Amino acid sequence: MILLDGKKLRDELLIEYKERIEKEKIKASLAVILIGNNEASKIYVHNKEIYCKKVGIDFKLYLLDENVLEKDVISLINKLNNDSLITGIILQSPVPNHINFDYCSSLINPLKDVDGFTKDNIYNLYLNKETLMPCTVKAIITLLKHYNIVLDGAHVLIIGRGNIVGHPLSLALLNENATVTIAHSHTKNLPELCLKADIIISATGKVNLITKDMVKDGATVVDVGITRENGHIKGDVDIEGVKEKCAFITPNPGGVGPMTVAMIIDNTLKAYALQRKEDING
Ligand code: NAD
Asked: For the packed helices 135-146 and 256-281, what is the interaxial angle rounded to 10 degrees?
């Protein structure tokens, strides 16, 4: 059994990004809008800042009060869209209930949309065209490819159809010529589907949903789930049990999470490149 070590690959990629930024004199900058006091969001945003600074990307935090009006969030997004010194924008989720996240994030200039959530970027993913792909989706695919796990023709079972992971991941894997099955909370025969899959990717947030008896010998298992219980992070997969059956498995933490951070940097650099291409063409 081989561990799909997301931490190790993240660190290798960060060195590559840093070297590229220095060599090509890249002047990228990431603006993150954080609304309110969600503790988990603060940790995620702090991590983004640390890794941006590590590689040489300018990081700007826009911390807005819990009670900020939606129109003020929209004006800030418009201002950042029009600021040529800002090359990437993230609206950190979740936002307070009175702010419509889907609407506000849809206003981000698609060329600055580091999270890959705007309609243009999702439509490009749907059409299999060049796009800024959602970071966790890109993280999973980059990790699997790094370990030479063949996606072409593989039967991949995605568990979870959320907008951030499961749903866009199904499009990205179809683009890689995988045979994709999607399971979700209404699926009736999950163990049976799991036993048929070459690759199982679970993104539900249900602790220990996937157990040893559900995995075929030699399968690959990717655990995306993050559930905080008593100060510990728990995944969707009973990793200790499943390890005995599979050929490859992500540790959790230490698998998809660190790779997602790396892909935020990757998308920030891609956004910068796409904007320059647009400048040159236009
Ligand atoms: P979501 O709530 O949008 O989606 C969860 C999905 O799980 C739903 O489609 C639901 O139908 C499915 N589901 C729930 N119970 C199920 C069950 N018993 N059987 C089958 N399917 C079931 O969540 P999301 O935003 O897609 O995130 C999913 C998980 O991935 C969460 O734990 C989240 O914290 C984690 N996550 C991790 C990263 C990372 O970088 N590692 C990034 C994003 C999300």
From this structure: 110
